[in-house]
Request: fold
Amino acid sequence: MPDEPIPLPGLPVRGSETGRPLMAALDLLGRRWTLRVIWELRQGQVGFRELQRRCERMSSSVLATRLGELTEARIVETGQDGYRLTPLGEQLLQALHPLEKWGFTWQQALRE
Reply:
């Protein structure tokens, strides 16, 4: 798969030639494993190998690519002991909590 540009607001992205911020976010977050990486960083800083272990079956090359994209997008940063969410990444995580809550509601509805 050829390198694709990292979706950023204001630049053309999938679904928006103008790079509307929401469309840029959806394009970035829709990449395989991206949300999982963010979710696994919710508990704090973690090293590459531990993050790979938490992300079950993700290859090291895909993890490195995703971490690079999220770093360039300023959602993740490298610390002394590994990777962590930036303040912007923490805000994103908080924005995902209502979706997590909806997911539980959806699961319950399907069981009924």
About this structure: The chain has five helices and two strands. Residues 1-30 form one domain. The first strand starts at residue 76 and ends at 79.
